[in-house]
Design brief:
Length: about 450
């Protein structure tokens, strides 16, 4: 019986084995003249990836050469069967090699474990922290290192309420650690798309050694910029033409309460000099209770920067908490003698490091010490009389270092006054946060009535 051969894509295969081989020249010529078949793009892409196509083409070229009349006539039955068998074996080996490469790309056990730690609930995709998780250790390190937070430009926020206010104001979250999934769903979920969500037992993570209350949520944010945040009037109300200037406030709790008073009074903004404590310190954030996300707070300003930040025609007043009596209030409008900076409330009585000497006016006292520079002369008035205008700024100084000479000069240049808060005799001065609350809410009353 003749062996039936078929040429597919220039590859010859034997359909039936036979002892005697007879191939007519006419059949071979028709096979050779047949145009090569073309494969589909999908098959080509698969074969190119696996390397099968190249092997088939090489085998086809060899067998095509073997199918010429002179070669076929010279080949025996055994040689022809061996050539086809070798081609089939080589094709099978290539396919097995491709399968081995595909199966060798399976994920590692560590990756499988990490993928299994992810969970989905609604639109939230979170992961459960594993024992000795690096994310938790990085959180603890970040919380305990102020230098690291400043270098990386990050802040830490505690509690669902504070985190929610930060998200609504447009702050950028990086990682949110939570313990209860239901509490996480109370946040603005649509603003957590770019954040990593990690479920962890926060009671087992002691981040703040001075914090006794347990927190249900801690988030890492990029350090916000006031110019990039949103303060909607619908949420925060329309701001009043009233600005608070904090000069050398270095106590975190005191500054946080002062910022909270400014937000409650509806101030336009808060400006802080370079001598103030970091406004994003955890204690400041905790005491402010979300004031950072209700009005613009601009830290680390020089006095020249403060003047450019204030609107035109702003009048700057300074707070006075010296223990004035009712008699002093009655004489508040009378002319006063020149006072030193330390004679004002929350002002520094320390000597100025840079003394000014004049060639014609240089004098020395009996012990040979140069005469100290005196502060600007400001008119004093009770805090409850009218002192607001088109735009007004109030300067509050720290209890330790007090107001700087630059603050007093700015008040003198803008025709500001010394706002006196009277107290009974024998009582120490109010702290900066209490004085700020008294003056800011009085300013709010005057502006609303006008």
């Amino acid at each position: 019986m003749a062996t039936l051969m078929r040429c597919t894509r220039s590859v010859c295969t034997i359909l039936e084995p036979a002892l005697n081989l007879r191939i007519s020249n006419r059949y071979v010529r028709s096979v050779r003249r047949r145009p090569p078949a073309t494969s589909s793009p999908e098959e080509d892409s698969i074969n190119l990836k696996s390397g099968v196509k190249n092997e088939q083409i090489e085998g086809a070229e060899r067998l095509e050469h073997a199918c010429c009349p002179s070669t076929l006539e010279s080949m025996s039955d055994g040689n022809l069967r061996d050539a086809c068998q070798k081609h089939r074996d080589k094709t099978r080996k290539v396919s097995e090699s491709h399968r081995e490469k595909t199966t060798s790309k399976r994920p590692s056990p560590a990756l499988i474990s990490k993928l299994q730690s992810f969970h989905q609930m609604g639109s939230l995709r979170y992961e459960k922290a594993q024992p000795d998780d690096k994310k938790v250790s990085r959180l603890i390190h970040l919380a305990r290192s102020k230098k690291l937070r400043e270098q990386q430009g990050k802040i830490l926020l505690e509690g669902r309420r504070l985190i929610s206010e930060a998200l609504e104001a447009g702050a950028s979250p990086l990682t949110v650690f939570f313990s209860v999934l239901e509490r996480l769903q109370e946040l603005p979920v649509n603003k957590l798309a770019q954040a990593s969500l990690v479920k962890v037992k926060l009671e087992d993570v002691r981040i703040w050694p001075d914090l006794k209350a347990e927190v249900d949520m801690i988030a890492v944010f990029k350090r916000p910029e006031a110019s990039q945040m949103l303060f909607s009037e619908e949420k925060c109300g329309k701001p009043l033409p009233l600005t608070l200037i904090c000069d050398n406030l270095r106590d975190p709790g005191n500054l946080g309460v002062t910022l909270r008073c400014a937000a409650a009074a509806g101030c336009h903004s808060v400006l802080l000099t370079t001598g103030c404590v970091d406004v994003w310190e955890p204690k400041v954030l905790r005491a402010a209770l979300g004031a950072h996300f209700r009005l613009p707070i601009i830290p680390s300003l020089s006095w020249s920067d403060i003047q450019t930040r204030l609107p035109p025609n702003t009048t700057v007043h300074v707070a006075d908490n010296s223990t004035g009596s009712e008699t002093e209030l009655e004489l508040a409008g009378a002319p006063q003698q020149a006072k030193k900076a330390g004679d004002y409330g929350w002002t520094s009585s320390r000597n100025i490091s840079r003394k000014t000497y004049y060639e014609d006016e240089y004098e020395e006292d009996e012990v040979g010490v140069a005469r100290q520079e005196t502060g600007p002369v400001l008119e004093t008035q009770p805090y409850h009389t009218s002192w607001t205008g088109s735009h007004t700024a109030v300067v509050i100084g720290g209890e330790t270092h007090g107001l700087s000479q630059e603050a007093l000069r700015l008040a003198e240049e803008t025709r500001g006054r010394r706002l006196l808060i009277p107290m009974v005799r024998g009582v120490d001065s109010l702290n900066a946060a209490m004085a700020a609350s008294v003056l800011l809410f009085e300013g709010r009353r005057q502006l609303r009535e006008s």
